[in-house]
Design brief:
Radius of gyration: 30 Å
Oligomer: single chain
Number of helices: 12
Low-confidence stretches: none
Order of helices and strands: HHHHHHHHEHHEEHEEEHE
Strand content: 5-15%
Mean pLDDT: 84
Largest sheet: 5 strands, mixed
Length: 377
C-alpha cells in the first residue's frame, strides 16, 4: 500500500497552494506569482505521491517524480526571487532538472541516481533557505522559521547523501534519515505556503495603508500621513535633536486654474510633489496639507541649514519649466519656516506658526521664505 503519511501531506500542500491562489483572487496583485506558487504545490504533491507508491518501480517513474519535485521547488524559488526583484535562475534550474531526469534513467546505476537526487534537492533547499532568509529579515525580524526549516532539510539531505555513499549505502542510516526528511520537507513546504499567504496579506495591507496615508493626486502624504510622520518623529530612537518644519504654498495658483484649467493646476501640484520627492533626503517628509499648500519636515536640520536648503529648492523650482495643459509654465512657491529642538514640542502649534509665517511670505511679495525670528511685527 501507498505510504499513509504521504497522502495527507500531499493533500495539505495542494489545499494550501489552492488557498494561495484563491486568496484575493479578485485582486490583480501578484496574479502571476500566485499561479506559479499553485503550480509548484501541485508538482510537489504529485511528485510525492508518485515517489511513495509501492507498486511500480520503474526508473521512468523515478525520473518523473523527481522532475515534479525539483520543478515544484524551483517554482517556489522563482516566486521568492520575483518578490525580491532578483533575477531567477532559469538556466541553472533547467540544467539541474535535465541532469536529474537523465540520472534517473538507465544511464546511471540506481545507487548513483539516488545520490544525485539527494544532491539536487539539497541544492534547491539551500537556495530556498537563502531566499526565505532575505524575505524574513523584512517581514518578521527575529527567529527565521522558514530559513531554519529549509536549512535543516538541506542538512538532512547531506546526511542522507553520506549514508548512501558510506560503503555503498547504509540501510540503517538511510532509514533513520527518512523520518527527518518527511518532517523537514513537508513542514517547510506547508509552512512556506502559509508564509507566501502572509506575504500577500502584508502587501495588501501596505497597499491599503498607502491609500489611507497618501494623497491620491500627488502621491505625497496626506494630512493623516503627516500626523503619523510627526508621531514617528517624536518617538524616534535616538530622537532627532532638532526638526525643521516648513509650510509652502504655490503662488498665484488660482490664476493658473482660471487661465489654463483645473487639469493644468493639478499637473502643477503633481510636478511640485515630484520635484520635492526627488530633492529631499530619505528621512525627510513631504505632505499635502490641503489645496495647493504643502508641509515639509526636515529631521536633524537646524534653522540655518533648513533655510539654505529650502531657498535653493525655491530657486530651482522657479526655473523649472512645467508642462501643464499643453502650455509651458513657470511657477513659484512661498514658505513659512519654523524649527524646534524640544522633543515635547506641540507639532500642531508649530504647524500653525509655520502657516502664519507662510502668509507673511505671501504679503511680502511671494516667492520668498519667512523664517521664525525673521518675521516682521
Amino acid at each position: 500500500m501507498i505510504d499513509v503519511h504521504i497522502m495527507p501531506i500531499a493533500l495539505t500542500i495542494i489545499l494550501v497552494g489552492w488557498s494561495s491562489w484563491r486568496f484575493a483572487a479578485s485582486q490583480a496583485e501578484l496574479v502571476r506569482e500566485r499561479r506559479i506558487w499553485l503550480q509548484g504545490c501541485l508538482c510537489i504533491a504529485f511528485g510525492m505521491v508518485i515517489e511513495a507508491q509501492p507498486v511500480l518501480h520503474w526508473r521512468v517513474l523515478d525520473a518523473f517524480s523527481m522532475g515534479l519535485l525539483l520543478g515544484g521547488y524551483q517554482q517556489f524559488a522563482l516566486v521568492l526571487a520575483s518578490l525580491q526583484g532578483r533575477k531567477p535562475w532559469y538556466v541553472a534550474g533547467t540544467v539541474l532538472c535535465l541532469l536529474t531526469l537523465l540520472a534517473n534513467t538507465d544511464l546511471l546505476p540506481a545507487q548513483w541516481a539516488a545520490m544525485w537526487n539527494v544532491v539536487a534537492l539539497g541544492i534547491v533547499f539551500v537556495r530556498l533557505s537563502w531566499l526565505h532568509w532575505q524575505i524574513e529579515q523584512h517581514i518578521r525580524p527575529g527567529y527565521p522559521i522558514l530559513t531554519t526549516l529549509y536549512a535543516l532539510g538541506a542538512i538532512t539531505f547531506a546526511l542522507r547523501l553520506a549514508a548512501l555513499a558510506w560503503e555503498g549505502g547504509s540501510i540503517v542510516l538511510v532509514d533513520m534519515s527518512d523520518p527527518l526528511l518527511y518532517l523537514f520537507v513537508s513542514t517547510a513546504t506547508i509552512y512556506g505556503s502559509f508564509g507566501f499567504l502572509m506575504v500577500i496579506l502584508r502587501r495588501r495591507t501596505l497597499h491599503l495603508v498607502r491609500e489611507t496615508l497618501q494623497d491620491s493626486l500627488t502621491g505625497a502624504l496626506n494630512r493623516r500621513g503627516l500626523d503619523e510622520a510627526l508621531q514617528q518623529l517624536r518617538l524616534a530612537v535616538p530622537p532627532f535633536r532638532r526638526v525643521a518644519m516648513a509650510m509652502l504654498d504655490v503662488d498665484h495658483f488660482k490664476q493658473v486654474n482660471d487661465r489654463y484649467g483645473h487639469a493644468a493646476g493639478d499637473e502643477v501640484l503633481r510636478a511640485l510633489a515630484r520635484f520635492f520627492q526627488q530633492s529631499l533626503r530619505e528621512q525627510d517628509v513631504f505632505a499635502r496639507y490641503g489645496g495647493e499648500e504643502f508641509c515639509v519636515l526636515l529631521p536633524g536640520a537646524g534653522p540655518a541649514d533648513a533655510l539654505r536648503k529650502l531657498d535653493a529648492l525655491r530657486e530651482q523650482f522657479a526655473r523649472l519649466p512645467l508642462q501643464a495643459g499643453g502650455h509651458t509654465l513657470h511657477c513659484t512657491f512661498s514658505v513659512g519656516l519654523v524649527s524646534w529642538d524640544d522633543a515635547e514640542v506641540n507639532p500642531e502649534k508649530c504647524l500653525h506658526q509655520a502657516d502664519d509665517l507662510l502668509y507673511q511670505a505671501k504679503r511680502a511679495g511671494r516667492n520668498c521664505i519667512v523664517a521664525a525670528g525673521q518675521a516682521g511685527p
